[in-house]
Give the backbone structure.
Amino acid sequence: MSDAGFDAAIVTERPRIDRLDPRTRVLASFAVVVALVATRSPLVLAGALGVLVCAAAVSGHSARALLHRLAHVEGFLVVLLVLLPLTVPGPAIAALGPVAISEPGLVRAGTLFLRVNGAALAVFTLLGGLEPIRFGHALARLGLPEKLVHLLLFTARWVSEIGEEARRLHEALRARAFRPTTSRHGLRTLAHVAGRLVVAAIERAERVDEAMRCRAFAGRFALVDRNRFGAIDLVFAAGLTIGLTLLLATDRWT
Amino acid sequence: MAHIPDGVLSAPVLIGGAALAATGLALGLARLDERDIPKTAILAAVFFVVSLFAVPVGPSSVHLLLGGLIGIVLGVRAFPAIFVGLLLQAVLFGFGGLTSLGVDVVDMAAPGVIFAALARPILERAAPATAGAVAALVGAFSVAGTAAAMATALALSAADYLPSLKIVVLTQAPLALVEAVITGFVVAYLARVKPEALGRLPTAEAAS
């Protein structure tokens, strides 16, 4: 069990980007990711990645947070990045004993690396640090089904509480000198922690449901949101549209 | 590992995954009564938190997927719960992606929902130990199903990924074992401590 994770979800204040309507941020991040997925040329992708790194820095993220975020992405990619140059057929540019590094494979791996990191950066720049409540409200106003939004708001609300509960149980285990190991005892203990969390969650849900009913909850939240689509959003959206059009145009015509 | 990031899959696979996920979400939301929202949300939060546990496997460690357990406890409502969990993970932690969300939701939710539905008659009646043993199978099959679905999504996207997939799928074998043991123990525990958590499933609920 690790303690990491719960605190990583802290909401960070980022004055520059927080002036945008969260809806703009959601749509913009989606647009950038789609544009990157549609871009084929590695050179254009490298340029886009450069712009995105600058944007991430300007938007108020620390370099440490950026590297931390990208390190997660690399975890998924590492197998593909290592194997693509070795397995894609094509002319070899270098050989290490029996294995040859093929040029098309290297290009494929490079493109993949640039595209995936660019997309991760875009999401991080635009949505990182966004309060889950504002995020949920933005999604509701973008037309996501209300039940799904309620589910999201409730879940976001309880992740930290359940995290606290998990930490308490973890402390209790440590106080009894428990060390997680791959043994029957170790796994069963972890399973009982998970089971205890499920039981506590169901009991908590029953209390919450009753409390909400007492306060005349009729299955609908009033989604109050003071964010407005303003001049800043318009300028940002226009700039982004021009930027993405340029990106795709350079990609197709070069 | 069940989080395919943005930029890896091809457009047709992304669109197909999104369509399948939308179907699952529609089914799940239809079953999601307003009264169920707090319970489903709190359980989604539990699975979110538990999937952050690092469970030791020899010198290394794995993160649980819990697809089987979620399917057992939530039934088809696993789709909205997992959707919400993955969306929050993508935005808060950067696991997974936005365009790949549909594929990721299907990979994670569908195997658990299907295998749990098959095992439901036994899980609802059997003694705790038997229910645990069956749940262990559900857990293992769900991990295998998730790995197979991910591999399919990647293979359909580009033939170049095929050699890597063998390695990726093989790395899921220890996870399937750990997940089986954990799911089995959790379900045996729930059968003893909170039987409603297993019996209070959509079908049983409709009957009562």
The mean pLDDT of chain B is 86.
